[in-house]
Write a structure and sequence with these properties.
Elements (H helix, E strand, L loop, with lengths): L1 E7 L3 E10 L2 E10 L2 E6 L6 E8 L3 E5 L2 E3 L6 H13 L1 E2 L2 E8 L10 E7 L2 E2 L11 E6 L1 H9 L6 H14 L3
Parallel strand pairs: 4-10
Antiparallel strand pairs: 1-2, 2-3, 4-7, 5-6, 5-12, 8-11, 9-10
Length: about 170
C-alpha cells in the first residue's frame, strides 16, 4: 500500500493508503496512533480508582486511568507511569487483562488494559498542562450498574470492567 501523510499532530496523524487487495483498488483513510495503556486499579478497600476527566467536546467523563504510549514505549511501562501520574498511586503488579482496537476500521490505536494490584499512595497527581481531572473511587458492582444504564460510555472502561467481571464471574 502506498502511504500519503495528510496531517501530523502531537498524539495522532492522518494518512491515506492506496493499493490493491485481492485484485481490487482500495483507498483507506487511517488515523495513526501509538496506542495506549489503561488500568483497572483496586485500592486497599477493593474500590476501583477512576478519574473524572474533562474530554472535549463531551465534558467530564468518568473513566479508568489511561494514557498514550510514548514513542517505542512498552505498554506495561506506560501503565505503571500513567497510574502514578493520574492518580498518585504506585502498583506493585500489573497483570494483562485485554488488548483491543477501539475503532478498527479507520484507526491504528490499540489499547492495552491491565489490572493493577498492590497499590500504595505515593504522591499527588502529576498532570500534563492540558489535563483536567480528579480521582474518584467506586465499587465495581456500582460501576457495572453505571455501564448497564449508559452512564459510563468510555470504551476502555467498559471493555476492561466487563472483561474483568466476566473472568471473575461478578455479574
Amino acid at each position: 500500500m502506498k502511504k500519503k501523510k495528510i496531517f501530523e499532530g502531537k498524539i495522532l496523524s492522518l494518512s491515506v493508503y492506496e493499493g490493491v487487495i485481492e485484485g481490487r483498488k482500495v483507498k483507506r483513510e487511517m488515523i495513526e496512533h501509538r496506542g495506549a495503556a489503561a488500568m483497572l486499579a483496586f485500592d486497599e478497600n477493593d474500590k476501583l480508582i477512576l478519574v473524572k476527566q474533562h474530554r472535549y467536546p463531551h465534558g467530564y467523563v468518568l473513566e479508568i486511568p489511561a494514557g498514550t504510549l510514548e514513542k517505542q514505549e512498552d505498554p506495561l511501562k506506560c501503565a505503571y507511569r500513567e497510574l502514578e501520574e493520574e492518580t498518585g498511586y504506585r502498583a506493585k503488579k500489573m497483570s494483562p487483562l485485554i488488548t483491543y482496537y477501539p475503532s478498527i476500521g479507520y484507526n491504528t490505536e490499540v489499547i492495552h488494559c491491565f489490572v493493577a494490584s498492590g497499590l500504595k499512595k505515593i504522591a499527588d497527581l502529576s498532570l500534563d498542562d492540558d489535563e483536567i481531572l480528579s480521582v474518584v473511587k467506586i465499587d465495581i458492582k456500582k460501576l457495572l450498574g453505571m455501564i448497564k444504564t449508559g452512564k459510563i460510555q468510555d470504551s476502555k472502561t467498559i471493555c476492561a470492567v466487563l472483561t474483568y467481571a466476566a473472568k471473575k464471574k461478578i455479574f
